[in-house]
Write a structure and sequence with these properties.
Layout (H helix, E strand, L loop, with lengths): L1 H17 L1 H12 L10 H18 L5 H21 L16 E2 L2 E2 L3 H17 L3 E3 L4 H17 L7 H12 L3 E5 L4 E5 H21 L19 H26 L7
Antiparallel strand pairs: 1-2, 3-4, 4-5
Helix pairs in contact: 1-5, 2-3, 2-5, 4-5, 5-9, 6-7, 6-9, 8-9
Length: about 260
């Protein structure tokens, strides 16, 4: 029992280490509600702090340049989705406060929320020495990834395919397992379950963030209400996009540089 508790404690510590960017970023979101700098809008303060956190992680070698490239890709993917979803015709959510660093009403810091998920995946992959068993063919995983991302746009003008896509996730990834090491013994977790668990904790962080006013859903304008639990489904699908891109980029790198040993 003591060995289990020790391993569980180490697992928690390593999870905190893997969340170093995500945790720091959401701490900034919380503190931004309390810190007021004259002449500097809150959204721009968040952006500057996110950039400083990113620079610090590189400076202290807690993040690699390759991981930074992945985060930039996710920043762009997330920002594109944010711009689309916040337009007046859809108004899925909004950023009502003022800010200088905005594109079509979306603050640039918003892309870091998606990059935070990718950062966690990259860090966890390295810290826990992740290996994927029974991973589908990469063209199949990338095709499903693209279909999921496109559905976030297309379901506003045509049939929402999220449930058929969810069924496809179980067909494509249902046989997959994640192997990881906490201390010495190898542990395993079903790949689809890992998607759900990450999506669930993002939903928890989303509730904390909206409570602090980082962004606002239509039903939260008058008073804060918990984010619907159905959003876990959306995050579940978004996590798959993040995971597939990270996994496939690592696969491509391994093919190009077979002798490279990742730190």
């Amino acid at each position: 029992m003591s060995a289990f508790l020790h391993e569980f404690w180490v697992f928690g510590l390593k999870e905190v280490r893997a969340c170093i960017f995500a945790g720091s970023f959401f701490l900034v979101l919380a503190l931004s509600k309390l810190i007021h700098i004259p002449g500097l809008p809150r959204y721009d303060f968040i952006l500057l702090m996110a950039l400083l956190i990113q620079a610090a992680l590189l400076l202290f070698r807690l993040e690699t340049w390759d991981e930074l490239k992945v985060l930039c890709l996710f920043h762009a993917i997330g920002l594109g989705l944010e711009i689309f979803k916040t337009q007046p015709a859809l108004h899925s959510w909004s950023y009502p406060e003022a800010g200088y660093a905005k594109i079509l009403g979306v603050p640039l810091y918003s892309g870091f929320m998606y990059a935070a998920v990718a950062s966690y995946l990259c860090q966890a992959w390295r810290i826990f020495h992740l290996e994927i068993r029974r991973y589908p063919h990469h063209w199949l995983s990338l095709g499903l990834c693209a279909a999921i991302y496109l559905n976030f746009f297309s379901h506003h003008v045509m049939v929402d395919l999220r449930w058929p896509l969810t069924a496809a996730v179980f067909l494509v990834f249902g046989r997959g397992w994640v192997d990881f090491t906490v201390i010495r013994a190898r542990r395993s977790l079903p790949l689809v379950l890992s998607f759900f668990l990450i999506g669930f904790f993002i939903w928890v962080a989303e509730n904390i963030s909206t409570f602090g006013g980082a962004w606002v859903y239509p039903n939260q304008h008058g008073a804060w209400h918990p984010v619907s639990f159905t959003k876990v489904h959306s995050w579940f699908l978004l996590v798959i996009i993040s995971f597939v891109i990270v996994a496939d980029l690592k696969h491509i790198k391994a093919l190009r540089y077979p002798d490279t040993i990742e730190a």
